[in-house]
Amino acid sequence: MQAIWNNTVIAESDETIVVEGNHYFPPGSIKRENFADSETHTTCGWKGVASYYDVVVDGERNKDAAWFYPEPKEQAKQIKGYVAFWKGVTVK
């Protein structure tokens, strides 16, 4: 699987975990140079508190286009630290 934004592969892995239709990529599979920390947080009733990254490619920023659960609830522990995408990031 690849996550692509602005014609650039920003994550790639054969070991994604699919939860609720989203591919979660292992933390080591993202290209850190394309990610900037965000102050955004949201809460999922069964997964816990999500943190976000802005995706940055060629000087363009896609705010909060990636999210992850640094400390998920017990029932979502398999995706701890794994990164998922939205906001125009293509996953294929």
Task: Give a written overview of the molecule.
This is DUF427 domain-containing protein. Pfam families: NTP_transf_9. Residues 1-87 form the DUF427 domain. This protein is mainly β. The chain has one domain: Metal Binding Protein, Guanine Nucleotide Exchange Factor, Chain A. The protein has no helices and nine strands. The strands form three sheets. A four-stranded antiparallel beta sheet has the order 5-6-7-8, with no helix packed on it. Strands 2-1-9 form a three-stranded antiparallel beta sheet, with no helix packed on it. A two-stranded antiparallel sheet has the order 3-4. Strand 6 (48-57) and strand 7 (60-68) form a beta hairpin. It is globular, with a radius of gyration of 12 Å. It starts with a strand and ends with a strand.
Describe what is shown at a glance:
This protein is mostly beta strands and 92 residues long.
Catalogue the unreliable spans.
none
Category from helices, strands and their pairing = mainly beta
- Taken as a percent bin, the fraction of beta residues is over 45%
What is the third-level CATH name, the topology? Metal Binding Protein, Guanine Nucleotide Exchange Factor, Chain A
Give the rounded overall mean pLDDT.
98
Radius of gyration, in angstroms, nearest whole number = 12 Å
Strand order of the largest sheet: 5-6-7-8
